[in-house]
Design brief:
The protein has 859 residues and is mainly alpha-helical. The chain is built from 31 helices and eight strands. Residues 249-422 form the CSC1/OSCA1-like cytosolic domain.
């Protein structure tokens, strides 16, 4: 190991170890369920063995170091001066570390190489990081999704590099003397219908078959990854969770309860499943939280305006008229805001006289895990079995209703995941909000489509010569409109995510990701294909006369329809992220030099433009689009493979650089997606290529079997053998392990069951802050319970402080008594008996007075 700071190696050592500790803590927080898995227990055993070996090596190194010291003392001083002091300092720092921490120290030190002037690390030091020197194991410290993502890209790069060697074989199969067999005959446009004219370049079903193959590939890939992810979720329930149960394992979320329900009735109703520990009712305090947030915002704005007013007051003497205007404006704005604060406070005081009503939802926490699982199994049943149970066991099954309402029971979310203020909103209003949100997104997409169509129609009316720059400028304008629409969809989706008022944060994030991906896919692929094709131009003529009309002048589109399908979406989904990175760098330069925000880091810059929580799903979608569009047409297979190979390498190094430099100080790749290598990709690709061999070997509508003596067929056979090998090594082994682990996980449960206690995370309502600031009257039983809880917490804190003060006073009194006894022994030898008795009586009187004063202080 070589460090850059030779003058202060100890400081660098501490900074690197601190940074590694913070990184490990953040990853443990984000992936705490996976860190305490069964596989990690096996790793710990192996690490213990390594520690023993390293301890032996350390003992041997000490012996050798002692021998070297004795030998170095005998050597002359010139030999000792030739040694490198930096290496000695680094070796001493490494020896100070324990053997278990040495590997982490070596891996983390790769991330902190040299001190420069353009990046801030977690220890507030300016450092640069080398992208190529960091391995995937170093990047895995940021989270499991990072290493998985780069392993997936590596697999795709290996596949496409191997396919490049067989491009000659594919061109020989796809072309015949420089021409395709289907395009040898000329196609006339006279007396043709719309469908025959649109399929002129699609004779023998070449384009349709290739598009169907790619579409089936994408469907199978998504289906297999969903199954694999579901298996991993089942395994994570048993192996990758903590050794003990969590709070949500004891809790149950109940809906559709009557609003006037009481806790006693709920306790009696659910007690036949087991002992109930606590019942947390959800109240309609959403308006209180809104008013509180608004009041805080207004007060913060007043503070900011006063600070700005003080700044302008300092410049009053220099720029008298301008500063006076500013002074008057700030004074007026403060006067406008202060009555709003009073109105909000009055509204909150009016709310204190109203009773808090129940929203018909509650969380029931059982004492044991088995009772919660019984309750879930009792209510979460298929409808057909439910009907049979109502017929056969009507007496037992009548408890599904609480009063006159059918209740719904499901697993309770995590306490930190619940949005308590959104539980009072009904399903109808939530669906109405989702409908409004989708309508807004569709309207915006339709408006962008109209703008692109106008530019495309203007471009079609111009001359298409190479010297004419207007067509080129309009084409660039269309691409920039697409990028602006994509960026606007992200911003609006992020702001409208809270408009739907979901019950949990995870539902809010998942809904946002689905809407964002679908809108970007529509804007980047389907709309663009519709715009660039003459179908939009010919739609009016076709609707009136059922003839093509203007499409007669554009036969090139129908001749090269497959290539256009590949080229247009590929260019959009690949070039748009590059342009977005250029825009972010321009924004950073502007904010750093013009706005003078020198403390702005790269992560905070990128966070404002793109969401840090969900770039992994977007990046996976980009890779899938590239591969799907690459394989959608085999007539352009060699060229597209070369472009896709270069694109994957570019994405690999660009994303690796962004992970190492931008996202290393953030909570990136949180818990959204953790995909492993795409196991179905090599297998399905081999089947697709083998089927394509029979399809491309058609001549005069006769199918021919592969010839094992033909070199092109031998090349295909080698490709299939290699793909089967890759499928076995990377895909089938992992899938078999997943199936075996999931089957074992269903039978066993290694977690330790214990009764619910106060050590678990509690379902606390976010109303305590409002209680501390406002004094509400006691109206309603639930409000009394909440206020009593808050009072008990404050009483406990006051009792703890009282006990501490009591201990301190006792210690002081003991010290004072000991000091007095020592003084007495000293004076006893000097004074006479009568004088000593008089002093003793005086001290007794003083002790009685001080003890009474101490008792009063304690009380």
């Amino acid at each position: 190991m070589s460090f850059s700071d030779s003058s202060s190696p100890e400081k660098e050592h501490t900074s690197s170890t601190d940074s590694s500790g913070t990184l490990s803590e953040s990853t443990n927080m984000r992936f705490g369920q996976e860190s305490n898995s069964k596989s990690n227990l096996i790793k710990k055993n192996s690490e213990l063995k390594k520690q023993k070996k390293e301890d032996k090596e350390m003992a041997s190194e000490k012996e050798t170091s002692d021998e070297s010291k004795s030998s170095s003392e005998s050597k002359p001083k010139s030999d000792q001066e030739e040694k490198n002091p930096i290496a000695e300092n680094n070796e001493s720092n490494l020896k100070m570390i324990q053997p278990a921490e040495r590997n982490e120290f070596i891996q983390k030190s790769k991330l902190y190489r040299k001190e420069r002037k353009y990046h801030l690390s977690k220890d507030d030091k300016i450092r640069s990081i080398k992208c190529c020197s960091t391995s995937i194991t170093d990047c895995s410290k940021f989270g499991i999704g990072v290493s998985v993502y780069f392993e997936t890209i590596q697999l795709f790069i290996i596949l496409f590099t191997f396919f490049l060697f067989f491009c000659v074989v594919v061109t020989y199969l796809n072309y015949n003397n420089g021409k395709r067999d289907c395009t040898d005959s000329e196609c006339k446009f006279e007396n043709k219908t719309v469908w025959t004219k649109s399929s002129i370049g699609n004779q023998n079903g070449i384009d349709t078959q290739s598009i169907l193959i790619g579409f089936c590939f994408l469907i199978v890939l998504i289906w297999y990854t969903l199954i694999e992810q579901r298996l991993k979720d089942k395994i994570s329930q048993y192996y990758f969770q903590r050794s003990t149960f969590e709070t949500r394992d004891y809790a149950v979320f109940v809906e559709n309860l009557p609003t006037d329900v009481e806790k006693r009735a709920l306790n009696e109703f659910f007690s036949h499943f087991g002992e109930v520990y606590e019942i947390q009712m959800s109240m309609n305090f959403g308006e209180l939280i809104k008013k509180k947030k608004r009041m805080l915002l207004l007060e913060n704005k007043i503070v900011q305006l006063r600070a700005q007013y003080r700044k302008w007051y300092l410049y009053l003497l220099r720029y008298l008229p301008f500063s006076i205007r500013k002074k008057i404006n700030y004074f007026n704005s403060i006067e406008e805001i202060s009555p709003l604060v009073k109105e909000v406070k009055e509204e909150m005081e009016e709310l204190k006289h109203n009773k808090l009503k129940s929203t018909g939802k509650c969380i029931i926490i059982f004492k044991e895990v088995t009772s919660a699982s019984k309750c879930l199994n009792y209510y979460n049943i298929y409808p057909f079995i439910r009907v049979l149970r109502t017929i056969l066991f009507f007496i037992k099954w009548k408890n599904i209703k609480f009063g006159n309402k059918k209740i719904k029971v499901k697993r309770a979310p995590h306490p930190d995941d619940i949005l308590w203020e959104n539980l009072e909103i009904s399903k109808l209003s939530r669906y109405f909000r989702i409908l409004i949100k989708t309508i807004l997104i569709i309207v915006f997409l339709f408006g962008g489509l109209i703008l692109i169509l106008l530019l495309e129609s203007q471009k079609a009316s111009l001359k298409s010569s190479n010297s004419d720059t207007s067509t080129f400028i309009i084409g660039i304008g269309i691409s920039f409109i697409i990028i602006i629409i994509n960026s606007f969809l992200r911003v609006t989706g992020q702001k409208l995510a809270s408009f739907t008022k979901t019950q949990t944060k995870s539902q809010q994030n998942a809904g946002f990701v689905v809407e964002l991906l679908t809108s970007l896919l529509l804007n980047s692929t389907i709309y663009i294909f519709f715009i660039y094709s003459p179908l939009g131009i010919c739609f009016g003529d076709f609707a009136l006369s059922k003839n093509i009309g203007d499409c007669k002048n554009q036969p090139s589109f129908f001749d090269n329809i497959g290539w256009i399908i590949v080229l247009i979406p590929f260019s959009n989904c690949f070039i748009a992220p590059t342009i977005e990175t250029i825009l972010t760098t321009c924004l950073g330069v502007y904010q750093k030099h013009r706005a003078k925000k020198n403390a702005l880091t790269q992560f905070s810059l990128y966070k404002g433009f793109d969401l840090p929580e969900f770039p992994l799903g977007l990046r996976y979608l980009r890779i899938f689009l590239i591969i799907f569009l690459c394989l959608s047409l085999f007539s352009a297979f060699p060229y597209v493979i070369l472009i896709c190979w270069l694109g994957l390498i570019y994405i690999y190094y660009l994303d690796r650089w962004s992970v190492v430099t931008i996202y290393r100080a953030s909570h990136f790749w949180d818990d959204t997606i953790s995909l492993k290598m795409m196991s179905a990709f090599p297998w399905f690709l081999g089947l697709m290529l083998f089927y394509n061999k029979f399809w491309w070997s058609t001549h005069n509508n006769d199918y021919s079997a592969p010839n094992f003596f033909n070199p092109s067929d031998i090349g295909y056979i080698l490709i299939i053998i290699w793909i089967v090998f890759i499928f076995w090594k990377f895909g089938l082994k992992q899938s078999l392990k997943l199936f075996s682990r999931s089957s074992k996980a269903r039978k066993k449960d290694n977690r330790i069951s214990q009764p619910f206690n106060d050590s678990f995370a509690q379902y606390t309502l976010p109303i305590h802050d409002i209680i501390s600031d406002l004094t509400f009257e006691k109206n309603g039983q639930e409000w009394e319970d909440l206020e009593n809880k808050f009072d008990t917490n404050t009483q406990n804190s006051e009792m703890s402080q009282w006990e501490e003060d009591k201990e301190q006073i006792q210690l002081k009194s003991e010290d004072w008594i000991n000091s007095n006894e020592e003084d007495e022994h000293k004076k006893k030898s000097d004074l006479s008996d009568s004088d000593w008795e008089e002093d003793k009586d005086q001290k007794k009187n003083n002790n009685s007075s001080t003890s009474s004063s101490d008792i009063e202080l304690i009380n």
